[in-house]
Write a structure and sequence with these properties.
This protein has about 475 residues and is an alpha/beta fold. The chain has three domains: about 260 residues, Rossmann fold (3-Layer(aba) Sandwich); about 110 residues, Four Helix Bundle (Hemerythrin (Met), subunit A); about 50 residues. It contains 15 helices and 15 strands. The strands form five sheets. It has a four-stranded parallel sheet with strand order 4-3-9-10, with helices on one face. The chain has a four-stranded antiparallel sheet with strand order 5-6-7-8. Helix 9 crosses helix 10 and helix 14 packs antiparallel against helix 15. The protein starts with a strand and ends with a strand. The structure holds zinc ion.
């Protein structure tokens, strides 16, 4: 049975959706004011895998990832670049989808944009005022602010494990004198002249970030959902505030399971503008295959931090390439005429039989992707072992290798670490390797070595196998 670690309780709990087999799942998406960094990309890959695994497990998942297309950061950027906020948001939304597609992150069932739900946000804010959870304060010439009154929500702090009194004492003194309590947060913000604005009962303004997510969740998925995910940095205040808004209004539990993924660190340091070590997903994709990046992201448990440095990623790349080579070798063997001698296939049979159970056991344990990946790599290794002596195999081996490939495609597809792309060997390389076989027969070893060196320069390695045969591999 699937167990998930729930930030709300701090426990690993059996996963029992509200209305099985339906699973309603919402993950906080990007604020579109710049290109996303690999930390954001990792988060989306983590939840993409979780979604795909839930579907594989038989759940009917409705998956929502929002786009925050109105926010202070977008407005700031629009002033810097002298463009409309709308244009900034549109451009970076497209850039985001491009990166997601490249990374093999499947589109969500819904990608709501905050600006398409303004009337619903206004409705929810009005409802919160009516219920005594929010209050209106004067702000700009154009309108008033609406703030959430945190003290009216008795369990405020339950997600982050913070207590209301401590929070109030610890909160830094804000300039906003109008706040009843320093931890009250903005639901509606009055606009300044020239800023994006919408009409509301409180004048011209725009919604706060937290109310955006709460509204889109309720509008698309309903009052109570199964899974809400996001980065660990969103626990407080973003998700804490989402709970206060929704539960304050509906008086129903908002989210059953809160899942949060860890950060990526760069050589042991947090990515930050001041350190100048922000690694954009676009740049990462220019240097590495998406499957390699996914393999790297999944090499740590999603809740854990993940450390990047060049050596670690290069090691991941080599590991993945070896894994990927399995597919090529098996396909070669399946396309070659069979041999008629028997082969020892017991270990491969066992590896095939246990891979899915091992994979499931790992993923059922709070989506333990490092263990799940290891199960696939074990099977891949055994498969390559069978093929290590000869590229040609018996009829029985062919059938087993086909089975192994099916399993690797099925389960590797959930993780998104398999690709249909194969390395194609240029004809010239093939011919040189053929010519080398004859040279070796003629004991022209010097010439044979020269050919091997030449092929190496062309980016390929000739590997000798049994019976004077050879295999060509891409150089790492
Ligand atoms: Zn959110």
């Amino acid at each position: 049975m699937l167990k998930v670690t729930n930030t709300l309780t701090g426990n690993k709990e059996p996963f029992t959706p509200i209305n099985p087999p339906e699973v309603k799942m919402y993950v906080c998406g990007p604020t579109v004011y710049g290109d996303i960094h690999i930390g954001n990309a990792r988060s989306q890959v983590n939840f993409d895998v979780i979604r795909k695994y839930l579907i594989y497990s038989g759940y009917k998942v409705t998956y929502v990832v929002n786009i925050t297309d109105i926010d202070d950061k977008i407005i700031k950027k629009s002033i810097e670049e002298k463009k409309e906020a709308k244009e900034i948001a549109e451009n970076y939304t497209q850039a985001y989808f491009k990166v997601m597609e490249k990374l093999g992150v499947q589109k969500a069932d819904f990608h709501p944009k905050a600006t398409e739900f303004i009337p619903d946000m206004i409705g929810l804010i009005a409802g919160l005022i009516e219920k005594g959870h929010a209050y209106v304060v004067p702000s700009t010439d154009l309108g008033k602010d609406v703030l959430f009154d945190s003290t009216t929500f008795k369990t405020y702090g339950k997600l982050s494990g913070k207590n209301l009194e401590e929070l109030q004492e610890g909160a830094r003194v804000e300039k906003n004198e109008a706040k009843k309590s320093p931890i009250d947060f903005v639901l509606w913000k009055a606009s300044k002249p020239g800023e994006p604005q919408w009409d509301s009962p409180w004048g011209k303004g725009r919604p706060g970030w937290h109310i955006e997510c709460s509204t889109m969740v309720r509008k698309i998925l309903g009052d109570s959902i199964d899974i809400h995910g996001g980065g660990v940095d969103l626990i407080f205040p973003h998700h804490e505030n989402e709970i206060a808004q929704c539960e304050g209004f509906t008086e129903k539990p908002y989210v059953k399971y809160w899942l949060h993924n860890g950060f990526i660190e760069i050589s042991g340091q947090k990515m930050s503008k001041s350190l100048g070590n922000i690694w954009k997903a676009k740049a990462a994709l220019a240097d590495y295959r998406p499957e390699v990046l996914r393999y790297f992201f999944l090499s740590a448990h999603y809740r854990s931090g993940l450390n990047y440095d060049q050596d670690i990623l290069e090691a991941n790349k080599r590991g993945w390439e070896e894994f990927n080579l399995t597919f090529q070798r098996v396909e070669e063997a399946l396309n070659s005429p069979p041999v008629d001698y028997p082969m020892d296939l017991l270990e491969l049979r066992l590896a095939i039989d246990e891979v899915e159970a091992k994979f499931k056991e790992a993923m059922d344990d709070d989506f333990n992707t490092p263990k799940a990946t290891a199960a696939l790599f074990d099977l891949a290794r055994e498969t390559r072992r069978v093929l290590s002596q000869t590229p040609r195999v018996s009829v029985g081996a062919k059938s087993l290798l086909g089975e192994a490939l099916d399993k690797l495609n099925l389960l590797g597809g959930i993780l998104g670490i398999v690709t249909a792309e194969r390395v194609s060997i240029p004809k010239e390389v093939e011919e040189l390797a053929q010519a080398r076989v004859q040279m070796k027969k003629d004991r022209k070893f010097k010439e044979a070595d020269e050919i091997r060196a030449k092929v190496m320069e062309m980016g390929f390695i000739i590997e000798d196998v049994q019976g004077g045969q050879f295999r060509i591999l891409p150089k790492k």
